[in-house]
Design goal:
This protein has a 7-stranded mixed β-sheet with strand order 3-2-1-4-5-10-9, sandwiched between helices. Helix content is 33%, strand content 26%. It is built from 9 helices and 10 strands. The protein is α/β, with parallel strands linked by helices. The protein has 2 domains: 7-222, 3-Layer(aba) Sandwich (Rossmann fold), CATH 3.40.50.150; 229-282, no CATH class. The protein has helices at 11-19, 36-43, 56-68, 81-87, 107-117, 131-134, 138-143, 186-195, 231-255; strands at residues 26-30, 48-53, 74-78, 92-98, 118-127, 144-152, 155-163, 180-183, 198-207, 215-222.
């Protein structure tokens, strides 16, 4: 791997392994960069890792990593992961999104999409906006020039516009495709996860003094929507309601003297009623 970050021994992935048994699970990873986390996830026993990378140079490095380390259960995809999440029908057990949320023009949409495509745990690491901290640094004052109130799928939040200035011209730049991104406050990130159905949120690696801006890691689990009724009771309830409907329908047919030869409904049962010798099959 290139660079100084020891991503193959990343404490965030170790934390994920402590909280979740990854063995046999499907994982979607956003922004694999050079494939270090992808390698670790396979080593941890993931059944399949789908790693989506939009940067073509980083994608080529991922392919080299795959060949050198003989990765068998990692699929690298060259794509904008926002568009990928919008279009795919796949659902994954685990989602890993480290270092991507703060590069989004619409970070809330990303969390919304992850909620649709992740049925289990989410590991998220991101920078967040804290005016009290960032306001002390003149460089950050130049970057954050605008605040905008926004609503996405019912979630109200504030977008703090972060201009890349000249960073997107650097040879090592690996941020978003637009000239700016929008950061969320710490509170909005946490509330956003809850709004879109994640629960049991845990926080680690909280670093308000990170040189690139306040940052933290979060782990959350997708809330399981349980029915109020067991499956057997649901079947009985359905049959009871259907019986009431049929009885009411037959009553009205007879009361108003209607003549109906056949009524086909969009269910496995077929009701047939014929006056002058009424007959019903269920």
């Amino acid at each position: 791997m290139t660079g100084s970050a020891d991503l193959c021994n990343d404490g965030r992935l170790k934390w994920l392994g402590e909280e979740v048994d990854i063995r046999g699970k499907s994982v979607i990873e956003l922004g694999p960069l050079e494939g270090a986390h992808s390698y670790v996830l396979e080593q941890m026993g993931a059944a399949r890792v789908t790693a989506v990378e939009a940067n073509s140079q980083a994608y080529l490095k991922c392919l080299i990593t795959k060949e050198l380390l003989r990765l068998q259960r990692v699929d690298f995809v060259l794509a904008d992961f926002m568009e990928y999440l919008r279009q795919t029908d796949a659902v994954f057990d685990i989602a890993v999104a480290c270092g991507v949320l703060y590069h989004m023009a619409n970070p809330v949409e990303l969390i919304s999409l992850l909620a649709k495509r992740c049925r289990g745990h989410l590991l998220l690491w991101t920078h967040y906006f804290d005016g009290a901290v960032l306001g002390k640094d003149p460089a950050f004052k130049l970057r954050f020039t605008k605040e905008t109130g926004a609503t996405h799928e019912g979630f109200e939040h504030v977008l703090h516009r972060s201009n890349y200035v000249h960073a997107d011209k650097w040879s090592g730049f690996c941020g978003g495709s637009a000239a700016y991104a929008n950061w969320l406050s710490r509170e909005d990130v946490l509330n956003c996860l809850t709004h879109f159905g994640f629960e049991g949120v845990k926080v680690r690696f909280d670093d308000p003094s990170h040189p690139n801006g306040p940052a933290f890691a979060l782990m959350a689990k997708k809330k399981v929507m349980r029915s109020r009724f067991p499956e057997s009771e649901k079947r009985l309830l359905f049959a009871y309601r259907r019986t009431l409907f049929l009885q009411a329908h037959i009553y009205h047919l007879r009361y108003f003297g209607a003549h109906l030869t056949t009524l086909n409904r969009d269910c496995p049962a077929c009701l047939s009623v014929q006056e002058q010798g009424t007959w019903v099959t269920l």
